[in-house]
Design goal:
It is a single chain. This protein has one helix at residues 2-19; strands at residues 24-27, 32-35, 44-48, 53-60, 63-67, 73-77, 81-82, 86-89, 94-97, 106-110, 115-124, 127-131, 137-141, 145-146. By secondary structure, the protein is mostly beta strands. The longest helix is centred in the N-terminal third of the chain and has 18 residues, at 2-19. Residues 6-20 have low confidence and may be disordered.
């Protein structure tokens, strides 16, 4: 009697894990303080710059627990986050291309750490449509960026 219940619980847990979607946001118009606890009385860990993408792991009242590109976890006030989506290039000399094709003409090359705006949240065939702050848009391999 106990074994079927454990198996059913395990199956439900696995099914819900597969349904989890990543919730990425961006630090809003002003830099945000990242804390070690969901309180302004918590220890200050880092000041996240405007436009930095973060993954929202958990929300707790007016606070959000976020993960950065390095995998570090911290808390910030939820109002400091924007729904606008940015991504960070995580490989050296990444190429934006005119279309979602490895053989398409490159329109720009960018180094690791460069911020790009995510134009379309739908990643198709392993490519994401992005725009640089200079107005250049194109497609980049999803494996070359973080924040999607």
């Amino acid at each position: 009697m106990r074994l079927p219940r454990i198996c059913a619980s395990a199956l439900l847990l696995l099914a819900s894990a597969g349904a989890h979607a990543f919730d990425f946001k961006t630090i809003g118009a002003a830099p945000a303080i990242l804390y070690d606890a969901p309180s302004i009385k918590g220890g200050k860990l880092f000041i996240a710059p405007r436009g930095m993408p973060v993954e929202v792991v958990l929300t707790y009242g007016e606070w959000a627990k976020v993960r950065d590109i390095n995998g570090d976890l911290a808390w910030t006030e939820a109002r400091a986050l924007s729904a606008r989506r940015n991504v960070i290039i995580r490989t050296a000399n990444a190429r934006l291309r005119a279309s979602a094709d490895e053989n398409a003409n490159p329109v720009m090359s960018a180094d690791k750490g460069v911020l790009l705006e995510l134009v379309d949240p739908q990643v198709s065939g392993g490519w994401a449509k992005v725009r640089h702050r200079d107005g250049i848009s194109g497609f980049i391999k999803a494996s070359d960026i973080w924040g999607i």
